[in-house]
Each structure stands twice: as C-alpha cells, then as structure tokens.
C-alpha cells in the first residue's frame, strides 16, 4: 500500500513540478523584457546583441543556491567551494605538486610573455602561473557552462539577484565590444569566465591584450590570460619586490588571537616576540623592516605564517585564505622547488554555514567582532573564538568545532 501511494505521489508531483517550471520559464522571458532589457540598453548594448545572447536560453535548474519566485532560500549547508572546506584536502600533495610541475613547464613555454608581463606589472611570473594553474589548470580544465544561461538564471532567481544582473549586463557589454560571441562565452557554474576565471565586470576592468591582436581573449589565448592576471594583481595593489609570506613557528605563549591584517607588526618585531621562520632560515633582509601579519588559517590546527600585503592582494582574486595561501605556496614550488609545509593540518569538524553563523552570532552577542554572521570562518571569526577561549580560561585554538558550538549553546 505504501509503495502504491508513493508511486501515485510521484506521478502527481512530476506534472505539477513540470507545470511550475514552465510557468517560471515564462516569467523568466517576461523578466528579460521588463527588467533586463532596460538595464542592458542603458549600458550601450544593442538590441541585436541582446537578442543573440538570449536566443534559446532557458533556466539552468541544476545550479546551486537558486530561489524560485515565491520560494524561501534553503538553509545554508556545507560550503560548496573547495576554498571554504577542509585545508588538508585543499592542499593534497597530488594537487599541489601537479600544479607546480605543469607550472614549471608553462614557465618555459611562455617565458617571453611572462617576462613582458612582469616588466609591465611587477608581478612575478611564478605567482601568475600559480593563479592560472589553480583557476583553470593552465587552460586544460573544462569550462562547460554557457555564461549567459548561468548569469541569467542567477540574475532571475538567486539570493544575489542584483549582483548577477549587473554581471549579466557586463557580459553583454563584452559581446557588444566584439571580444567573444554569445555561445563561445563559457563560464564556471558561478559565471566566472575563461582561463583566469574573471567575472564579467572584472573582464571589463582588467582583461588585457597580451599578444597584440587587439582583443582580450581569455578563453583561447594564453598570452592574454597571462597579461590579464598580471594586470588584475597590479591594479589591486601588488607591491613589486616583496614576497607574499613565510611559514613560521610560533612560541607557545603567542596568542593565535593576534591574527589579522589589522594587527600588523614589523617582521623584525615578530622575530623579537619569538616567531621564527621554518627550517632555521632567516627572513630576507629587505623584509625585516617591513610590516607583516600573522596568518593561521586553521588556528592552532595547522601551519602558521607571517604574510605581507601581497597576500591580501591575492585574496582580492579570491577571498579565501586557503586560496591565497595555495597560490603563494605553489608559486614558491614553481620558482624555488620548496617542499611541503613543515606543519600538517589537523582533521576538522565539518560544520554547515548555518552552524558557523550561529556560533558567530553568539560571539557577537558577547561583544566580539566576527566580521558578521556569514557562516565562513575568516580571520575575525577565528580570533574571536580565541579571545572567547582565553577569557573563559581555555587554551586558545582559534578555529570552530562541534565542542565550541555546544559550549556556546548552539
């Protein structure tokens, strides 16, 4: 009887769902005319380009974080992006070593273009290569999505509709300028374009012509990809001549709550506090008088670093600490052949964004600055945990786990 009822429910639900989706597709087409076209037109895009871009485009129901009209957002689960999950997995030796090995090959193959970009921007070749490798495996990774379909879907029904609408308008401006045809504009599931994975608005600001053909082709041109990454970093403040950072060993009495880009000290002062570079290596002489910042992306459960302002330029490319750390580390492997980090990564509890957000809310109620309740354990959240642990007589770990969640009553 139960199985029979279940079959009936499925048969009833299927047509109902199909009808609902059909109705929403109709609303999507109406939205294109009433909401999207006026914005696209004001941005200087012709009707012909608009029509060509949207010709045959339907909603992509397989994308994450969609909110159909009249529906409430789903609870925030475990973050989908690798950058916000387990550090040990993110730094898997096969991934790190493979990216670096191919990067050394690319350094030889594109030596002239890399040298020209470094002269123009001050960004080292090995940093450009590490970003290129992480974003698209040097152009070898599949970038399968139709960018207009992705951006259109998210603009019409996502939790960040205004943001994606602006990005969709920017994508059509790229087409209007003749950089790429609508169906050749391929993106990730989040709408990031081409080999450097630029959002369309960033393409308009930073995409560069590296081969002199008058176009910025970040889908098919390695030279344009290299030049675009370098341009992005220098325009976000890359400081020529400075490193990105150094793995360090901390004395036991140095609090992990000292982490963050707003608590900088001269590197020489970190040394005076007992911080040492791993491997008994000295900090470069030209860095010792410069400001550095403590970075502990897994709290006491992973490696520690003193990073420079260039680390935070890398974070402008992707806001994750792990991403910027990966780029710096792989870049060092490409350029200098360095080994793995000296300290390992402890296993961590898998928490949903909702659970981390609840933890952040509790800490904020105590007057601690977590940077908001976004469900992501950034440096403000990590050090707030450490400050709370210190205040309650615990040994600071500066990283969220289930025991802390329970202790905070969440």
Automatic annotation (TrEMBL):
Pfam families: PG_binding_1, SLT_2. InterPro entries: Lysozyme-like_dom_sf, MltB-like, MltB_2, Peptidoglycan-bd-like, PGBD-like_sf, SLT_2. Keywords: Signal. Residues 353-408 form the Peptidoglycan binding-like domain. Residues 1-18 form the signal peptide. Gene3D superfamilies: 1.10.530.10, Bacterial muramidase (1.10.8.350). Residues 28-332 form the Transglycosylase SLT domain. This is Lytic murein transglycosylase.
């Amino acid at each position: 009887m139960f199985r029979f009822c279940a079959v009936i429910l499925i048969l009833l639900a299927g047509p109902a769902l199909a009808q609902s989706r059909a109705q929403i597709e109709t609303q999507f087409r109406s939205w294109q005319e009433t909401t999207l076209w006026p914005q696209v037109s004001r941005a200087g895009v012709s009707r012909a380009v608009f029509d060509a871009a949207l010709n045959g485009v339907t909603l992509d129901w397989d994308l994450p974080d969609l909110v159909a009209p009249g529906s409430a957002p789903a609870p925030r689960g475990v973050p989908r992006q690798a950058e916000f999950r387990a550090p040990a997995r993110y730094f898997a030796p096969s991934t790190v070593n493979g990216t670096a090995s191919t990067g050394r090959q690319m350094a030889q193959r594109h030596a002239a273009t890399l040298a020209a970009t470094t002269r123009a921007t001050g960004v080292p070749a090995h940093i450009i290569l590490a970003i290129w490798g992480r974003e698209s495996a040097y152009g070898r990774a599949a970038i399968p999505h139709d960018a207009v379909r992705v951006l259109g879907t998210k603009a019409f029904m996502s939790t960040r509709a205004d943001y994606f609408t602006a990005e969709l308008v920017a994508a059509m401006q790229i087409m209007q300028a003749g950089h790429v045809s609508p169906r050749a504009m391929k993106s990730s599931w989040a709408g990031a374009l081409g080999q450097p994975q630029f959002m369309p608005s960033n393409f308009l600001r930073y995409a560069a012509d590296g081969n002199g053909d008058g176009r910025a082709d970040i889908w098919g041109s390695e030279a344009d990809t290299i030049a675009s990454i370098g341009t992005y970093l220098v325009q976000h403040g890359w400081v020529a001549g400075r490193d990105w950072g150094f793995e360090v060993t901390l004395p036991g009495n140095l609090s992990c709550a000292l982490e963050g880009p707003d608590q900088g000290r001269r590197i020489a002062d970190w040394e005076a506090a007992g911080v040492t570079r791993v491997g008994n290596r000295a900090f470069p002489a030209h860095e010792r008088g410069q400001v550095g910042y403590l970075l502990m992306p897994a709290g006491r459960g992973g490696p520690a670093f003193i990073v420079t302002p260039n680390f935070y330029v890398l974070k402008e490319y992707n806001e994750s600490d792990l991403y910027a750390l990966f780029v710096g580390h792989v870049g060092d492997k490409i350029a200098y052949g360095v080994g793995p980090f000296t300290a390992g990564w402890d296993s961590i509890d898998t928490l949903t964004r909702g659970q981390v957000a609840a933890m952040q809310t509790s800490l904020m109620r105590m007057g601690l600055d977590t940077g908001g309740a976004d469900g992501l354990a950034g440096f403000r959240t990590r050090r707030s945990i450490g400050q709370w642990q210190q205040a309650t007589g615990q040994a600071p770990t500066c990283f969220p786990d289930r025991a802390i969640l329970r202790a905070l009553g969440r």
